[in-house]
Amino acid sequence: MPISEALLQQQLTDPKNRDTAFSELIMLYQERLYWHIRKMLLNHEDTNDTLQNTFLKAWNGLDSFRGDSLLSTWLYRIATNESLTFLVNKHTRAALTNTDYEDEMLQNLTADNYFDGNKAELLLQKAILTLPEKQRLVFNMKYFDDITYEEMEKITGTSVGALKASYHHAVKKITDFVKEIGDFV
C-alpha cells in the first residue's frame, strides 16, 4: 500500500528515516516524472539524465522544502525547471535555428528505440514541437497528464489565466498544423 504524502513528508524530515523515505519517494514518482520530462525532451537518454538530476536536486533540497505545496508539486517544479534548462543549454550549445532545433528533436524521437508511435502520434509530436517551450510544457501537462491549471500554477509560477491562454493558443497552433500538414503525411 502506497504511503501518504503527509507521512512521507514527515519521514523525510527525520534523519533516521530519510534514506528509506526518499527511496519511497522515487518509487512513487519516477515513472510519472519520467513521462513528464520525456514529453519535453523526446529522447530516452536525455530524459533519464534529467530525471536523475531532478532527484539529485530534490535530495539536496530536502532541508529547504517548506511543505507549502505537495511533494508531487515540488518534484514537478524541479523536473520542469531541469527540462527547460536542459533544452536551453542544448539549443545554445548547438547554436541551431528554431527550425533546425525542431528537426533535430524530431530526428531524436524517430530514432529512439523506445518510441513506437504510429503516424498520428508522430504528427502530433511534430505539431507539439512547433510550439514555444512554455506552451509545449503547458500543453503536455494539461493534455497528457491532466494536471489542473491550479496545480500548474504552483509548478510553473504562472497565473491560471496565462496558463489557460497558453493552452488555448497551443491547441489552436496544433490544430492548424495538423490541418495544414496532416494531408501531406
Question: What is shown here, in short?
Answer:
The chain is mainly α and 185 residues long.
Could you walk me through the main structural features you see in this protein, from its secondary elements to its overall organization?
The chain is mostly helical. It has nine helices and no strands. The chain has helices spanning 5-13, 18-41, 44-60, 71-94, 98-111, 119-129, 133-144, 149-156, 160-181. The protein is globular.
The number of distinct helices, counting runs of at least 4 residues, comes to 9
β content, as a range? under 5%
Give the overall pLDDT as a whole number.
86
Percent of residues in helices: over 70%
Radius of gyration: 18 Å
Question: Helices and strands: which structural class?
Answer: mainly alpha
Distance between the termini: 46 Å
What general form does the structure show?
A: globular
Assembly state here? single chain
Notable traits:
globular, 185 residues, mainly alpha, 9 helices
